């Protein structure tokens, strides 16, 4: 303000100087009023909260405790009595069965025949990558569950459920679980009619019984399980290959017709498979091949 007065006192008092002096006074008054209003408002906003406002805090939430991981103690010691020895053997037997579960599912159920037949139809259609092998195995697995469901239900009802309830010993539970599987395997190899001629399955049983120098069995109970399983595997391979041959016949005819047509037209360098594959697919779709194949494949286990 002193500099402003000094500046204006040294200037001659003209109309222009008077106007500029008035403008400067108004400007300085406006700036003073603006800062006098602004600073008290900011200070008040920092010190006081509005009504009904939550007071702020700088306290941090305490750090949560780390998750508790249970301690697992596996102690190996000498058994104190015979029951502990038996329990250890049962545990080892259970682990062995679990490790062999994939082989049991593949070789002692309908999975073997179903997977081989589906692979045959894939080759008969001249398909290389469609459907993928994972899809073929998945279809075989679910068809196996469908076919084997009565057997699995009998195993659960007669063996697993009583064992978990404690009303059945491990030995009796094993016998109750093997009985439905033995019945299923023998039904696939038994007589389909009143013929006195031995079936392929019965011939396989006789083969393995002879290799073990065992007496001729009179009933199914006389056939040991270690004889019944390999006989069942050979029977399933034989039946699956028979079905595969029947599946190949119509598609081989198409291959012959297409190859003859190409030879007659002089198109020797053109692969016949490239031309015959669409005709095979058309024939397979027109006759509802997947439905017929699934129906006959499932019926082959119950007839």
Fold blueprint:
Blueprint: H1 2-10, H2 15-47, H3 82-99, H4 101-107, H5 111-124, H6 133-165, H7 170-189, H8 200-211, H9 225-264, H10 272-286, H11 289-299
Helix pairs in contact: 5-6, 5-9, 6-7, 7-9, 8-9, 9-10
How would you briefly describe this protein structure?
Helix content is 70%, strand content 0%. It has 303 residues and is mostly helical.
| Structural class by helix and strand composition | mainly alpha
Provide the succession of SSEs: HHHHHHHHHHH
Query: So how many helices?
Result: 11
- Stretches where pLDDT is under 50 for at least 5 consecutive residues are 1-11, 41-47
Kindly state the number of beta strands: 0
Give Rg in angstroms. Answer: 45 Å
By oligomeric state, this entry counts as: single chain
Largest sheet: none
What general form does the structure show? flat
Give the overall average pLDDT. Answer: 77
SS strand fraction: under 5%
Alpha carbon gap, first and last residue: 118 Å
The amount of helix comes to 55-70%
Structure explained in plain terms:
- The protein is mainly alpha-helical and 303 residues long.
- It is flat and about 140 Å long.
- It has eleven helices and no strands.
- Helix content is 70%, strand content 0%.
- Among the domains are: 1-31; 102-194 and 238-299, no CATH class.
């Amino acid at each position: 303000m002193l500099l402003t007065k000094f500046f204006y006192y040294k200037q001659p008092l003209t109309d222009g100087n008077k106007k500029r002096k008035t403008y400067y006074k108004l400007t300085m008054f406006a700036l003073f009023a603006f800062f006098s209003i602004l600073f008290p408002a900011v200070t008040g906003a920092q010190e006081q909260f509005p009504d009904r406002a939550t007071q702020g805090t700088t306290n941090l939430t305490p750090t949560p405790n780390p998750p508790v991981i249970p301690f697992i103690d596996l102690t190996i010691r000498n058994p104190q009595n015979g029951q502990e020895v038996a329990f250890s053997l049962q545990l080892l037997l259970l682990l062995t069965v679990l490790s062999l579960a994939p082989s049991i599912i593949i070789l002692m159920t309908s999975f073997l025949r179903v997977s081989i037949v589906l692979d045959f139809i894939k080759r008969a259609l001249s398909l290389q990558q469609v459907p993928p092998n994972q899809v073929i195995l998945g279809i075989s697995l679910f068809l196996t569950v469908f076919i084997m469901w009565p057997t699995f239900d009998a195993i659960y009802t007669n063996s697993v459920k009583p064992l978990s309830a404690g009303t059945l010993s491990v030995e009796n539970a094993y016998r109750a679980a093997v009985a439905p599987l033995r019945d299923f395997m023998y039904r696939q190899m038994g007589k389909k009619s009143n013929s006195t001629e031995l079936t392929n399955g019965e011939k396989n049983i006789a083969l393995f019984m002879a290799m073990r120098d065992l007496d001729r069995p009179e009933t199914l109970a006389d056939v040991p399980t270690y004889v019944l399983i390999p006989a069942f595997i050979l029977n399933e391979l034989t039946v699956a290959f028979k079905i595969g041959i029947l599946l190949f016949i119509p598609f081989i005819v198409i291959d012959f017709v297409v190859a003859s047509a190409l030879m007659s037209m002089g198109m020797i360098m053109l692969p016949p498979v490239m031309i015959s594959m669409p005709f095979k697919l058309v024939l397979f779709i027109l006759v509802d091949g997947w439905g017929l194949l699934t129906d006959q494949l499932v019926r082959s286990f119950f007839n």
